[in-house]
Every structure is written in structure tokens, then in C-alpha cells.
Amino acid sequence: MNIHEFAELSAGHALDALSPEDDAAFRSALAEHPEWASIVESDAATAADLADGVAEVEPPAHVRAAVLARVSGGEAPVAMLPDAAGSEHGAERPAEPPLTTEALQTVSRRNWTRGLLALAASFVLLIALGTVAGTIGDSLRQPASVAALNEIEAAADSQAVTAEVAGGGTATAHWSEAVGKAVVVTTGLESAPEGETYELWFVRGDTAVSAGQFDTDDAGAATTLLDGAVEEGDIIAVTVEPEGGSPTGQPTSDPIVALPTA
Description:
By secondary structure, the protein is α+β, with helices and mostly antiparallel strands. It has 6 helices and 10 strands; from the N terminus they run H-H-H-H-E-E-H-H-E-E-E-E-E-E-E-E. It has helices at residues 3-14, 20-32, 37-51, 61-71, 101-141, 144-154; strands spanning 78-82, 88-94, 159-164, 170-176, 181-187, 196-204, 207-214, 222-225, 235-242, 257-260. It has a 4-stranded antiparallel sheet, with helices on one face. A hairpin with a 4-residue loop joins strand 4 and strand 5 (181-187). Helix 1 (3-14) packs across helix 2 and helix 1 (3-14) packs parallel to helix 3. The protein is elongated, with a radius of gyration of 36 Å.
């Protein structure tokens, strides 16, 4: 867990908004990184400021009973009036005065404070959901070649080799046999001549297997996922072919770069 992920959990912890799983992850990360305790203290102080933003006012004794009665849908308590002999009779009057402005303000302030904390917790949740959605969205918007390159670089058997290209520029092959993919990244490579294209090949012994075509951008860069799976001992080669690819299914020119994978 990095510090940014921990900060999100810390905010949720301060608002008591973590799931049991997230709370366990939060405590484990804090134990592993005690230097992050200042983040927890800061978030706790912020949550306390939110809760203490409005001064508490002690309500009159009669308010609690009246509020509870009204919330439950019942009537406020009444008291029996004593007669001249001191005994109670059926005449009734309200035992307590109606809710005062001060009492109503007290209840409103408490509800406002609870609402503010709930709103803050909602913001934390929305930020977390937005981060996840943004990450997923970025992944979906990635070109297949970039996604494949990330997958290769994350593999335990990821390998790469770089070579100079005839005529200028460099080409780097990235591959992983476990992933089964290969990506070629070029820099400083001029666009193919008009009516021609660059074609990629897996060279296996005396056999060349076409792996797709590509061209570069104005800066001479390209990131291309090869068609087909890389195999042990392959040489990845690039040739210049007629637009649309070699008409014979085999290279029609010498390679401008060859990248061995063994």
C-alpha cells in the first residue's frame, strides 16, 4: 500500500466509514508505517473540527421527553392537577412548556453536525469511487499496444533488447514468454516512404512469420504489439514493404533492424 492509498483509508477511518476489510488494511498499514501516524492525527483533528464547529447547548430538562414523544408519534406528557384537598382529578394540562426556540436550535445544530459528517463521509466515498472509475477508464482508453507493454513489463520473465536501426533511430523489443506477447517501441525512426510501410516479422530459423505493419508519428515514435505469440529463440525483424504488407507473405527487403530474443 502506498501513502496515497493509506491517506484515503485514514480519511474514512476518521469518519468511521471503513468496512471491516478496509479497517484491517488501515491498521496493518499503520503498523508497518508508523511514520504515517501524522496523517491519522490530522484527519482525526479535521473530523473533530467538523463535529465541534457548532457549540453545544445543554437543553432544558423537559426537552428530551418532549422531543422523544414527538419523534415516536405520541403526545407530550401531561400532569394531573391537584384539587383543593391535594388529590388529583381528571383535569389535565401540559406538564411541560412547548419547545422553545433555544431547544429547537439545539436539536437543529446536532442534526446539522451529523449531516455534515455524513456529507464528509460521502465525499470520501465519492473520491474513492472516482479514483477507481478513473483507473478503470484509463485502462479502457489505453491502446492495446500500451496495455500489452505494461503487462509484459509486470511479468517476472520480462526481457528487452535495443538496437540501432539502419538509416537512423532505435528499436526496442519487449517480450515475455509467460505472457506470450511482444511489443516493439521505436524512437527517431522516420516515417516509411510514401506507398510503403514497416512490417514486423518473427524469424524462426529459415522461416519468417509476418507480425503486422506499423508506421511512426511525426516524432519518429511508435509502440506496436506484434500479431501472434512470441516463441523461444525468435528474432524480431523489421523490413520496409509495399503499403498493406508484403504481397508474397515473406520479406521482400533486407531487415533494417533485427532484435534477438535469445
